[in-house]
Specification:
The complex is a heterodimer of chains A (115) and B (263). Chain A is of the alpha/beta class and 115 residues long. Chain A has one domain: STAS domain (Transcription Regulator spoIIAA). In chain A, 38% of the residues lie in helices and 31% in strands. Chain A contains 4 helices and 5 strands; from the N terminus they run ββαβαβαβα. Chain A is globular and about 35 Å long. Chain A starts with 7 loop residues before the first strand and ends with a helix. Chain B contains 7 helices and 9 strands. Chain B has a single domain, classed as Alpha-D-Glucose-1,6-Bisphosphate, Chain A, domain 4. Helix content of chain B is 30%, strand content 29%. In chain B, a hairpin with an 8-residue loop joins strand 4 and strand 5. Classes of the chains: A alpha/beta (115), B alpha+beta (263).
């Protein structure tokens, strides 16, 4: 059984993109950190926003709602959003929740930056 | 041959064991293209659910709202998991008369469909309108469950029902992240009392929980418009509108019922 890891979101930039490295559990407790990371990311006026899920090991439905919120804000700001590092399980969840209709899902950072 | 088969099976088992299984895997519904309604739901009108696809907060037409309703169970010695177990077990009884829920025998489990028979308020001289729809249980764990709406439902999005602890107090929370599914619903929510009725439904549910635990229904409501834009590309969702379909097919149901009585 995997160990509980609190959520963190670290912002960095590459090739004009803002990249938020997500880590740990995305649940209701992730709200403030995720909102802060998004707010910091858009301050730099990036050309696109990349969300890195490689180090995420748990998402509940409140966590999905937080991601929907980030996506809605990005769409409003006409900021393309791409995800990478999603496990097959989370890709499936993005499909059933129909987030996948609006979010690009690629395998790794290189593909996300190239896309 | 048997040895080879055994080795192959052993390899597959080892590979499966090597793949990390997310802790939340069992909490999520399996992907579905179209909804199916399994099992008998006594007294429920089963319309506008079977064969419908799911619509999330991004697929609807209207402004996207996040609405959060919270009830503190102050001075009640009960854990979030205990509250949620009771909540799930009494879901239909907690709903108001104008919005009945019909879960399956399995109850609140990921992938199950809950049928909904509701009545929209009478406005501007028009009689109350029935609506038959439903929701999919998208996610469920010990302290929460979420539902997602199908095509034709008044809202397009998620509702999450949860119990949590903050500063030593157990809270019950209902959070919706949804927009009106089509232009007719958006008009109804804005100008015909639909939005107020929706809020009244969740206040009623929390009020019932407050009554059960013997606390004052001190319900806090927070509303945030996440995206005020209308998604005109989704105006065609009106084709699935469950209110229109339920109303238009009513004469057929009355005729069938009348013929059933006379035959």
């Amino acid at each position: 059984m995997s160990q509980f890891r609190p959520f963190s979101a670290a912002l960095r930039t590459a090739n004009g993109a803002a990249i938020i490295d997500l880590s740990g559990e995305i649940n209701g407790a992730a709200d403030a950190a995720l909102s802060d990371a998004y707010a910091q990311a858009v301050l730099g006026r990036p050309q696109r926003l990349l969300l890195n899920f490689h180090d995420v090991d748990y998402i509940n439905s409140t966590g999905i709602a937080l991601i929907v919120g980030v996506l809605a804000q990005a769409r409003k700001a006409q900021l393309p959003l791409v995800t990478f590092g999603l496990s097959p399980h989370y890709q499936e969840i993005f499909r059933i929740t129909r987030l996948a209709d609006f979010i690009g899902m690629v395998e790794d950072e290189a593909a996300a930056l190239a896309g | 041959m048997d040895e080879q088969m055994t080795e192959t099976m052993a390899d597959e088992t080892a590979n499966a064991a090597a793949l990390p299984v997310s802790r939340d895997a069992a909490n999520w519904a399996r992907p579905v293209e179209k909804l199916a309604v399994e099992g008998e739901r006594a007294g429920a009108l089963n319309l506008n659910v079977a064969g419908k696809g799911l619509t999330g907060p991004l697929q609807g037409f209207g402004a996207l709202w996040q609405k959060t309703y919270r009830l503190p169970l102050a001075a009640v010695d009960v854990s979030p998991a205990q509250v949620m177990a009771w909540w799930k077990g009494h879901l239909p009884e907690l709903m108001p008369d104008d919005s009945r829920f019909y879960p399956s025998m399995t109850g609140v489990q990921p992938g199950e469909v809950v049928l909904i028979n509701a009545t929209l308020p009478a406005m501007f001289g028009a009689p109350p309108m029935p609506v038959s729809t439903g929701v999919l249980i998208l996610y469920a764990d010990d302290e929460s469950f979420s539902v997602m709406t199908p095509e034709g439902h008044p809202e397009s999005g998620f509702n999450t029902f949860s119990a949590l602890e903050e500063e030593g107090v157990t809270l019950c929370q209902i959070q919706s992240l949804a927009r009106a599914n089509d232009p007719v619903y958006e008009f109804g929510f804005r100008y015909m009392g639909g939005g107020a009725q929706q809020e009244q439904i969740w206040r009623h549910v929390l009020g019932q929980i407050a009554q059960h635990y013997g606390v004052e229904p001190a319900i806090e409501v927070r509303k945030q418009c996440v995206d005020s834009r209308l998604q005109w590309a989704k105006a065609g969702n009106v084709w699935h509108n469950a209110v229109i379909r339920t109303t238009l097919t009513a004469p057929l149901r009355w005729t069938k019922r009348a013929l059933g009585r006379t035959s």
